[in-house]
Amino acid sequence: MNSDAIRMDESGGSRAPWRPWGLARGGPRRRGLRPTRAGAYWLAAVIALLATAINYGNNLIFALAFVMLSLWLQAAWLCWRNLRGLLWHPAAPAPVFAGERIGVGGTLAETAGIRRRALRLHAGSEVSEAVDLAPGSDARLEAGVPAPRRGVHLAGPLTLASSYPFGLWRRRVALPAMEALVYPAPAGEAPLPLAAPVPAHRQFAADNFQGVRRYAPGDPTRRINWRVYGRSGQLVVNQFDGAQGGEALWLRWEQTQGDAEARLSQLSAWILAAQRDGLEYGLRLGHLRFAPRRGADHQAACLSALARFDAADQGSEVREQMPGIRDQMSGVRGLD
C-alpha cells in the first residue's frame, strides 16, 4: 500500500475517532471494485451480441456490442474514481439505552476537486441515505444500528460504498469499526429509596444551604430566617451542611430485585429519576463506588458503570447468602 493510501494515519493504523482516514487508492483496506448483478447481466448481453454479430456478420450488432462494452468499462473507471481522494472523519457514537438505535457515522470530505455522487455508509445491514459532494465540500453520513442489549457494542463492519454511475459497478472501502456504549434500558416500578438517605459528604463547598427548621432555644440568632418570619410569623432557622455533609441518596445493587439485567434496569431508572428531581445521589455497584453528586457528567459516569458491569463478577447471590464473604471477584471495568 502506498504511503498516501491512509494519509492521516501513518503512525500504524490508529483507530482514534478524531483521526481522519484517507480513502485514496483503496483507503484503510481494499474491498475492490466489482460489477453489480445489473453489471453482470450487461456484460452477458455484450457477449451475446458479439456472438450474434460474429454468427451473422452484422456490423450494426458489432457496433452496438462495442458501445455497450465501452460504457461498461467507462462506468467501472468512474465508479472507482468516485471514492478516490475522500477523507473520512469518524464521529464517536453517543451512548444510547438498550432498545434504541446507535447513530454511527461521521463526516466525509471531498479533497480532490471532483464532484461525487450517490455515496452511502453501510453499517452491517443498515444503510445511510445517499449524499452528493460538491468539489471541496463535506457532508454528514450516519446509519442507525440497533442496540438490543447493554454493554460495549462494536458497530460494524463499516463500509463506504457507491455504485455511481448506472449501477453497473460497486466499489466499497472498509472503514474502522466504532465502539458505542449501550446503557441498560430504564425499567422497574420500584420508587426511589428515599426513606432512609445516608449522610454523606457533599461534593460542593461546605456550608451549603439545606433548608429551614423550627427555631429551638440556643440557636444562633444570625441564622434566623427573618424573611420567613415576616411572611408567616414563625421562627425558623437556616440549616447548612457544614463540614459533615448533608443527606444524600445512595443507590445500591442490594436495593433491587430480580435477575442481573432487571436490577441494572432498575438502577438505571433510579438514576434518571434522581437526576430529573435534582437530587444528589451516589452509586455502589460491586467494588465500584461513585460519591453522591448531581449533574450530567455524574449521570453519564453512573450509567456507563451499569453498561460495563459484568454480572458474573458481582456474585450477588453468594453475597446475599453470606454477607461476610470477602469479595475476591474482579473484572468490572473502573471508569477514568
Give the SSE map.
Elements: E1 21-22, E2 29-35, H1 37-56, H2 59-82, E3 86-91, E4 96-97, E5 101-110, E6 116-123, E7 126-127, E8 131-133, E9 138-146, E10 151-155, E11 158-162, E12 169-175, E13 178-183, E14 198-199, E15 209-214, H3 226-232, E16 236-240, E17 247-252, H4 260-276, E18 281-285, E19 288-293, H5 296-308, H6 311-314, H7 316-321
Helix pairs in contact: 1-2, 4-5
Detailed description of the structure:
The protein has three domains: 21-180, no CATH class; 184-203 and 248-321, no CATH class; 207-240, no CATH class. The protein is built from seven helices and 19 strands. It has helices at residues 37-56, 59-82, 226-232, 260-276, 296-308, 311-314, 316-321; strands spanning 21-22, 29-35, 86-91, 96-97, 101-110, 116-123, 126-127, 131-133, 138-146, 151-155, 158-162, 169-175, 178-183, 198-199, 209-214, 236-240, 247-252, 281-285, 288-293. Strands 2, 6, 7, 8, 11 and 12 form a six-stranded antiparallel beta sheet that branches. A four-stranded antiparallel beta sheet has the order 1-3-5-9, with no helix packed on it. Helix 4 (260-276) links the parallel strand 17 (247-252) and strand 18. The radius of gyration is 31 Å and the shape is elongated. It starts with 20 loop residues before the first strand and ends in a 15-residue tail after the last helix. The model is unreliable at 1-21, 24-30, 201-206 and 315-336 (pLDDT under 50).
